[in-house]
Amino acid sequence: MKRFEIKAEFTIYEHEDELSQEERELLRWSREAATRADAGYSHFQVGAALLLENGKIITGNNQENSVYQGLCAERTAAFSAAARYPGVPFKMLVITAINPQEKLTKPVPPCGACRQVLFEYETKYGKNITILMAGQEGEIWKVNSAAELLPLTFSSAFLPV
Ligand code: ZN
Prior knowledge:
With 161 residues, this protein is α+β, with helices and mostly antiparallel strands. It has helices spanning 21-35, 73-84, 112-125; strands at residues 11-13, 45-52, 57-61, 90-98, 130-134, 140-143. It has a single domain (12-149), classed as 3-Layer(aba) Sandwich (Cytidine Deaminase, domain 2). Strands 1-6-5-4-2-3 form a six-stranded mixed sheet, sandwiched between helices. The radius of gyration is 16 Å and the shape is globular.
């Protein structure tokens, strides 16, 4: 038997003032997108702002419905970006959320499905996606690629050719 350890490394910013101007702008876009989320079931409004290599910013928010066939903010933004600008790599994604019942003081990380989708775009375009995660206030976390959020990743390399 062998054992191994997986380590994740990310940067913690104490406050958004520590972010670059570009990062702060994306955070503003993601917060604005969160206010427009269709979160009638979870009441947890998530916003995502995706910066593309061509400079375009695509936002997304969670879309919910009564049959639980909705979509997270991150994938809404990613699929919208890929639909509008196919082949253009993703540069940076900022994720935030609004909890109307209790202000979020911790960053909101993407779910497993979104991590896989982001990893796929990262692989397809050969370009790491910087991902920032924020709450409504407090710390902001940053990773330099989707792969860092998804150890032991399944990829197309496993599929038959
Ligand atoms: Zn998700």
